[in-house]
UniProtKB/TrEMBL annotation:
Belongs to the sigma-70 factor family. ECF subfamily. It comes from the Bacteria. The keyword Iron does not apply. Keywords: Sigma factor, Transcription, Transcription regulation. NCBIfam families: Sig-70_X6 (TIGR02999), sigma70-ECF (TIGR02937). SUPFAM superfamilies: Sigma2 domain of RNA polymerase sigma factors (SSF88946), Sigma3 and sigma4 domains of RNA polymerase sigma factors (SSF88659). It comes from Luteimonas colneyensis. This is Sigma-70 family RNA polymerase sigma factor. InterPro entries: HTH_Sigma70_ECF-like, RNA_pol_sigma-70-like, RNA_pol_sigma-70_dom, RNA_pol_sigma70_ECF-like, RNA_pol_sigma_r2, RNA_pol_sigma_r3/r4-like, WH-like_DNA-bd_sf. Residues 5-183 form the RNA polymerase sigma-70 ECF-like HTH domain.
Amino acid sequence: MAGTAEITLLLDAARGGDRVALDSVLATLYQELHSMARRQLAGQYGQTLDATALVHEAYLKLIGRREAQFDDRAHFFAYAASAMRSVVVDYARQRMAQKRGGDLHRVTDLPEDIEGGLRLDEDMLALDVALTRLAGVDPRLAQVVELRYFAGLSEVEIAELLKRSERSIRRDWQKARLYLLASLKSD
């Protein structure tokens, strides 16, 4: 695994438009991204979206955006989490549209953790809508949720990436969770 300094140099080059550097960053961090995707899709047997497909689709989203710029490792993972969210939500939308016309139902719970993986169903679509609302109110809280739910990072890992205290991340997670639950129940 490349060191943080090497990744930072590659990210700087990628920010300058160097596609080879971006490919190097992705290759270097591929195993981490794949592990995150595998955790998120745990228990989704029989689905066409697996961890490898999720990472590859997220990669295509990452390289497809010219404005994608990564200041550091934390920014890269935040962007990767957002890309993974987009892929998972698109997949859930497609799946629900094929299954039952895509009707949403009311979500009554938001688990503290997602050890069993993300459910690619109506709950995912409702969560995406609520998370978009949260991003409009407080982008920092939305980023914590994305890193927790879509990148599968722990509070400790998020704190390290964002250079904040674990306690601060825990508070942000609780605030975000309360907001999302209220938003989900009001729909």
